[in-house]
Amino acid sequence: MKKQISLWMTAILLFGTVVTFAQKPFAGTITFETIAEGTDDPNIAAQLSELTREVIVMGNNTRTNMSQPGIDVISIANGDYNLKTTVIDIPGYGKYYIEQDAEKLKKSFETVKFDYKYTDETYPIAGYNCKKVNVTATNLESDEETTLVLWVTEDLMTGDNINFSEYPGLKGYVMRTEVKTPMEGNEITIIVQATSVKPDKKVKATTFLRPSDAKSFDEAPEDLKKMLGMGGDDEE
To answer: Cα angle at 209 between 125 and 170, to 5 degrees?
Structure first.
């Protein structure tokens, strides 16, 4: 009888361990590519191929490293504290950051309404099953609507608040974005899609801190602000 109870206890402990591991938030790196559909222009393909995007994920937190010739951008979204930091690094100017806390993010979304229509259509991306979501973003001041298509997965076990800074309220992690845009009289579709997912248990919380050598964008030279089309008061 003691042996039987011991086996039961072992089974219960093992089951608890398995459940704990299964529910542990995802941590790792996701790599994306950018392509265009609806055009055969080699120049467009060449320009998009120069864009690189790598996202480090841990639970509710993401660090997106984007690079193209002449500029590097780091976007850090901390869903645990509702804090978004964008770092712009341009050779000859240095690094400057723009920070948006929960209050600023809430204010920025006050004039936008997101409508998510979840469908049953599925599509495998980088080894994960994704569902199609049709999104309509409405500007509440002008009634102008923007539509796009997202493909999201819930198999990554990311945090529930991972989309707080871009698509508030959206369920699942975005593995593919499709946006139609006019170009030279034609309509093309710009697609950003995950190409690989590499789990990494060694991702550290410090990864999602603002770089210590970055200065506030308020201190950026005026010519840099003009170059980027951003004034010192735009983010207030």
So the answer is: 40
CA torsion 218-224-230-232 (nearest 10°) is 20
Beta bridge partner(s), residue 118: 133
Domain 25-228 has CATH 2.50.20: yes
Give CA 207 to chain center in angstroms: 15
* CB-based contact 74:133 (threshold 8 Å): no
**CB count in 10 Å sphere of residue 34:** 19
List the domain boundaries for the chain: 25-228
pLDDT at 139: 95
Average pLDDT over residues 193-199: 97
* Bridge partner residues of 74 (DSSP): 65, 87
Residue corresponding to tokens 């995950």: 194
Is there a contact between 87 and 211 (Cβ–Cβ < 8 Å)?
yes
pTM greater than the 0.85 cutoff: no
Tens of pLDDT, residues 55-71: 999 999 999 999 888 89
